[in-house]
Amino acid sequence: MGDHFFFDTCIVFFLILEYYMEKEQKELKSMSKKKKEEERAWKARKENQKPHGKVKAFAELVEGTEKT
After folding, report:
1. What is the pLDDT of residue 21?
2. H or E, element range at 7
3. Whether the predicted pLDDT of 68 surpasses 70
4. Does residue 30 belong to any structural domain of this protein?
5. What is the rounded distance in angstroms from the CA atom of residue 20 to the CA atom of residue 34?
6. pTM higher than the cut 0.70
7. Among the four 40, 45, 48, 68, which has the fewest Cβ within 10 Å?
8. 58 found inside a domain
């Protein structure tokens, strides 16, 4: 009886362990998916921003300093 109890306990333990490992992997996948979506949205916002207007080329900046 002692051997069967130990064996059954081990099986239950490994089933519980497997359950929690699968649950954790699913959570990690959903978190990474959410993070990718957030990064994509952030990049889209940043690419569409022009806070200082059009950035001048170096040659245009040099021309502006020579005229003054």
Report:
1. 94
2. helix 2-48
3. no
4. yes
5. 21
6. no
7. 68
8. no
Q: List Cβ neighbours of 64 (8 Å cut-off, separation of 6 or more).
A: 56
Q: Is residue 26 part of a domain?
A: yes
68: amino acid identity, one letter:
T
Burial class (CB in 10 A: 0-12, 13-18, 19+), 9: exposed
pLDDT at residue 36 in the model:
86
Of the CA atoms within 13 Å of residue 3, those in its CB half-sphere come to 0
Domain tally, the chain: 1
Residue 40 falls inside a structural domain: yes
| Maximum Cα interatomic distance, the chain, rounded to a whole number of Å | 99
31 vs 43: CA distance, rounded Å: 18
In whole angstroms, give the CA distance from residue 33 to residue 38.
9
Give Cα 13 distance to the centre of its chain: 32
